[in-house]
Design goal:
There is one protein chain. With 154 residues, the protein is mostly beta strands. It is built from 2 helices and 10 strands; from the N terminus they run E-H-E-E-E-E-E-E-E-E-H-E. Strand 3 and strand 4 form a beta hairpin.
Length: 154
């Protein structure tokens, strides 16, 4: 008789802080501003975060070996061109569909995910983010209450 092993949900402990950013900056300009104001070293990842076929989100990452943290900047939306192929007046015109990484927060432009092994005080990070001229607001999000938390685990 073989033994059956089950992995409980408590096996994977969420050890990241999620900071929501509202800004009109493009992703490359946001990374430049974060690197300038927070003294981070975010760089574009060689692969994008794919959550479905033809739906991907650009990733910017930095592994901070001094503080033993991993930083990831994610855009919350991805716009994809779709051709409906209808035989009406605008049948040949493409339409655009926007997909959200975290649909509960559709108004958020970016998420800054800070992964660490132990508790980390993110209030200095939020204060630094609020000093960036084009950042409208920044705040922490309780990731335990997110319905789409699986999109942030990669």
């Amino acid at each position: 008789m073989a033994a059956i092993h089950k992995i409980s949900d408590d096996f994977f402990e969420d050890s990241f802080t999620l900071i929501a950013l509202h800004s009109s900056l493009e992703d490359h300009a946001m990374v430049y501003a974060l690197n300038l104001y927070l003294k981070s070293k975010l760089k574009r990842s060689s692969i994008d975060l794919d959550i479905a076929k033809d739906i991907s989100f650009p990733l910017f990452e930095w592994k901070d070996v001094v503080h033993d943290t991993n930083w990831t900047l994610l855009t919350n939306y991805s716009t994809r061109e779709e051709n409906l192929g209808q035989a009406d007046l605008f049948g040949n015109e493409p339409s655009y569909r926007t997909h959200y990484l975290v649909p509960e927060y559709r108004d958020v432009d970016y998420f800054l995910k800070v992964e660490m092994d132990e508790e980390y005080d993110c209030h200095p990070i939020v204060k630094g983010l609020l000093k960036i001229p084009k950042v409208i607001t920044a705040y922490t999000v309780d990731n335990k209450k997110l319905k789409s938390k699986n999109n942030l685990i990669f």
